[in-house]
Write a structure and sequence with these properties.
The complex is a heterodimer.
Chain A lengths: L6 H29 L7 H26 L1 H21 L8 H20 L3 H4 L2 H15 L7 H24 L13 H25 L14 H17 L8 H29 L14 H22 L2
Chain B lengths: L1 H21 L2 E4 L9 E5 L6 H8 L2 H4 L2 E6 H4 L3 H10 L3 E3 L10 H10 L3 E4 L17 H8 L4 E8 L1 H4 L13 E4 L11 H13 L7
Parallel strand pairs in B: 1-7, 2-5, 2-6, 3-4, 3-5
Antiparallel strand pairs in B: 6-7
Helix pairs in contact in B: 1-2, 6-7
Classes of the chains: A mainly alpha, B alpha/beta.
Chain lengths: 317, 210
């Protein structure tokens, strides 16, 4: 199968399958709504509908980026990073003295990170933010001449950049890997990552709604249950295993890699929930109807992308 | 004719631009935007504060809502003068202590009697700190002159961080506006009591500090 099918054709097939799944989801949602008694509470169904409609849009944007090619994919993830960073900093308390550091983050480090990925300079994009931004941002913040809660502020700006730009950019960075026998097909790795991890979120939602009883840590996220976690991660890992033909992995490798990224992705969502809880907000933003903000949608990607990148880089590239 | 079209176009353009840059959202407690004579009063962090409040109002209300602005800042160049007079249709007041012209409170009251709502910043100047500054007494005297007018507190969140005083490059943060319940002055209410109440109503809209 690998050899016989061209990358373009395979991608088109994958997107066709995803659109088919969405069609099914929309159909089920419409049926559920139809069967509901008049006057019944439609909250859950409406939320399901809003989520499904937003998925149509998101998959359409993703398909467009893949159709454009590597440049489109890099631009898409750069935009995702931009919006996520914007949401992150918006609910984080920064002071007047941080202005300079924020200008550097938005207008230098974010574009530079994606530029370095675009020109395939691994040695630089892998250290730009953890080394250079880590040192430069607090320096520019001190020039703002404000020592109040300095330590805390430095950490917040740094971590925003780390999660929203550095981590998310590793999804686009999959394009730079040289995998013997897999040349010209790297975009499929991104598709594999996004499909597996995002489906894990969907399956968690479904399993949680169907069977969820035992809350995992209600103080952090009231909607996450043990049943949702186990069911979601296992189902999504099975899906990942079934998608092995898109990747350089065999079935078992695909299953194990999926399990790893789904677990990390789940806890990524958890960590970002803790930050939201700490700041007293329910969602990161309102960009995506039914999902909240960009960061609500890509929280699991932000944690799983660098792990996935390094797994592939270490064992396959 | 052409100038009016141009002014209207510029106003819409400014509102849309402000919405685009700040991803602005507005939340109304109690009643939403209703066609009633009101004084919107807000915290003041940037020169474009009132553009955001304007942008949050439906176009019909926007056309009947005028910002109150300092003449010293806005009359310093031709473009600013055109913007503030023709596009934003501001009530300009002279903030100099040695002013000769009409009393600011009288100017504001006249505008309201003529059928327009107002946007005011009772801190009197752009605030560079974290806490809300004490209020100037203008809104108390205005409330006494027109006791039937509703004062609506509006908390503008994040805009001061987008473009703090003295900054050149804006940070594209997401801003939000919280409109609180309207308050009116009580017949025998003292100045300090009213100002404290108005200030408290505004502070109550602020998100928790952390």
């Amino acid at each position: 199968m690998n050899v016989a099918m061209s990358t373009e054709k395979l991608q088109m097939m994958v997107f066709a399958a995803v659109f088919g799944a969405l069609l099914l989801a929309s159909g089920i949602a419409a049926l559920l709504k139809l069967r509901l008694p008049v006057g019944a509470d439609t909250g859950t169904i409406d939320n399901l509908n809003a989520r499904t409609n937003a998925w149509w849009m998101m998959v359409a944007v993703l398909a467009l980026a893949f159709w454009i090619g590597d440049g489109g994919i890099i631009a898409l993830f750069a935009f995702i990073s931009f919006q996520a960073l914007r949401e992150f900093i918006s609910i984080t308390h920064t002071r007047r003295g941080d202005h300079r550091a924020l200008v550097w983050s938005f207008f230098f480090f974010l574009p530079a990170q994606y530029f370095l990925i675009g020109i395939d300079w691994y040695g630089m994009f892998s250290i730009l933010i953890p080394v250079y931004a880590f040192l430069l941002l607090p320096i520019s913040a001190t020039l703002g001449s404000d020592a109040e809660r300095f330590f805390e502020r430095a950490a917040k700006v740094q971590w925003g950049l780390m999660i929203c730009v550095y981590c998310i950019s590793h999804a686009a960075a999959l394009l730079t890997l040289d995998i013997p026998g897999f040349e010209g097909r790297n975009a499929q790795l991104i598709l594999f990552l996004v499909l597996t991890v995002q489906s894990s979120d969907v399956f968690q939602y479904v399993w949680g709604k169907l069977l969820g009883k035992h809350k995992l840590a209600p103080a952090i996220s009231p909607s996450k249950t043990v049943e949702g976690l186990v069911g979601g991660v296992l189902t999504a890992s099975a899906l990942g295993a079934a998608l092995y033909w898109m990747t350089p992995f065999n079935v078992w490798q695909a299953a194990l890699v999926s399990l790893a990224i789904n677990m990390v992705g789940f806890f990524g969502g958890f960590v970002l929930s803790a930050i939201k809880r700490d700041r007293g907000v329910k969602d990161w933003g309102t960009l995506i109807e039914g999902h909240g903000g960009m960061l609500d949608r890509v929280d699991s990607i932000s944690f799983s992308a660098p792990i996935f990148f390094h797994i592939v880089r270490y064992w396959w590239a | 004719m052409i100038e009016r079209f141009l002014a209207g176009f510029t106003a819409r353009f400014l509102c849309n631009l402000a919405k685009l840059i700040t991803g602005m959202r507005s939340f109304w407690q109690g009643e939403g935007p209703v066609p009633r004579l009101r004084v919107y009063y807000a915290n003041h962090r940037s020169h474009v504060d009132f553009v955001l409040i304007w942008a949050a109002l439906p176009p019909a209300l926007r056309a009947q809502t005028r910002p109150v602005a300092g003449a010293d800042y806005w009359l310093t160049s031709g473009l600013k003068r055109w913007l503030i007079n023709k596009v934003l249709r501001a009530v300009l007041i002279d903030r100099r202590p040695e002013r000769q012209g009409p009393d600011p409170v009288r100017l504001m009251a006249e505008a309201i009697r003529a059928g327009d709502s107002l946007i005011v910043f009772p801190e009197g100047t752009r605030n560079t700190g974290d806490a809300l500054l004490p209020f100037k007494s203008g809104i108390y005297h205005l409330a006494q002159a027109l006791p039937w007018v509703e004062f609506v507190p509006v908390w503008i969140d994040n805009l001061g961080r987008v473009m703090p005083k003295g900054a050149v490059i804006p940070i594209p943060l997401l801003c939000s506006l919280r409109f609180g319940h309207p308050i009116t002055v009580a017949p025998d209410e003292a100045k300090d009591a009213f100002l404290a109440r108005a200030r408290g109503a505004l502070i109550a809209l602020a998100p928790p500090e952390a």
